[in-house]
Amino acid sequence: MAEKTQDQRPTQKSIASKAGVSVGAVSRALANDPKIAADTRQRILSIATELGYTPDRAAQRLRTGKTQVINLILPPHDEIFGFGTSIIRGITRGLEGSGYHLVVTPDFGADDHGDVLTRIVKNKLADGILFSRTEPNDPRVRYLSEANFPFVSHGRTELATPHAYVDYDNFGFAYEAALRMIQKGADKIAILLPPSTLTFRQHLLHGFMTAVRETGVAFEIIEGATLESSAEQIETAISERFAKAHRPNGLILPGEVSGLAALAAIQDLELTPEKDVRMVVKQTSGLFDLTRPKVGSIYEDLATAGFQMATLLRKRIDNAPIESLQYVQPISQAPNR
């Protein structure tokens, strides 16, 4: 078959002609307008697919002022296996049928966060932005809020101005993890925390300390490494502490990389996980279902987080009240795969 030329490309008019409806009906059906009957929408979409129709993005932007693009700013998240894959899977599912396209902007710290956002906002490269790794006084949240530019963050801030976010119940994770170990006999528990630059450190610490105060157990905060340290640094910090006297017999790791590093350190010291040291790991990939000896874990479902972020951003773009666009994901016992 000869390749279609520019003039031969199917248009909404050619779809309308074949479907026996108006061009306006085609336009609304392609935008998934619920005012068009579901069977008519499906028939028009089938014809559009059959003809190989693709919308003219430039014309759409001139007509509506929208790019139909959502931009995800994605840092490495080395402490979480598969963060990008899982979050993108969920976002993609949340954008299905919306007409929005996802553009991923890698963020390896080489460019200033503010420059990335300014470029997107001032050049109108997207209709909304998604990002993660929020800080207590996050300048990205302040900038986008002041610019009235739609966004949803993965994580909360401590700013007075409300903003749209999806977060995980890190308080609940740390609290539940601590109680599990205490109920199994741990009388001195420890936790590895993120650096103070990230908001969820405070949520983890609050949950941990609430369990400590309620039960009266001894506790420690792991020193010499944070959740963002390399696996080698985490292994060294835990090895050095657990080689000394009066070591904790319960340990909370808020990520799979830190969990593996701790498991290696404990076993290298010839201590037995779940006997000498009880552990609870936050896992996102299901990896710790396969480790032996098996240790305790609690899931954070990143695909669901991505889905919620996309859903809330679509509502934000449609001017939903910001206070209605805040979701804290509860802890769960199994992944949603």
List the helices and strands and how they pair.
Elements: H1 12-19, H2 23-30, H3 38-51, H4 57-64, E1 69-74, H5 83-95, E2 101-106, H6 113-122, E3 128-132, H7 139-146, E4 151-154, E5 165-168, H8 170-183, E6 188-191, H9 200-215, E7 218-221, H10 231-242, E8 250-253, H11 256-268, E9 278-283, E10 296-299, H12 302-317, E11 326-329
Parallel strand pairs: 1-2, 1-3, 3-4, 4-5, 5-11, 6-7, 6-8, 8-9, 9-10
Helix pairs in contact: 1-2, 1-3, 5-12, 6-7, 8-9, 10-11
Structure summary:
With 337 residues, the chain is of the alpha/beta class. The protein has helices at 12-19, 23-30, 38-51, 57-64, 83-95, 113-122, 139-146, 170-183, 200-215, 231-242, 256-268, 302-317, and strands at 69-74, 101-106, 128-132, 151-154, 165-168, 188-191, 218-221, 250-253, 278-283, 296-299, 326-329.
Task: Give your account of this protein's structure.
- It is a single chain.
- The protein is built from 12 helices and 11 strands.
- The chain is elongated.
- The chain folds into 3 domains: 12-55, 434 Repressor (Amino-terminal Domain); 69-163 and 302-329, Response regulator (Rossmann fold, 3-Layer(aba) Sandwich); 170-299, 3-Layer(aba) Sandwich (Rossmann fold).
- The chain is of the alpha/beta class.
- Helix 1 (12-19) packs across helix 3 (38-51) and helix 8 (170-183) packs parallel to helix 9.
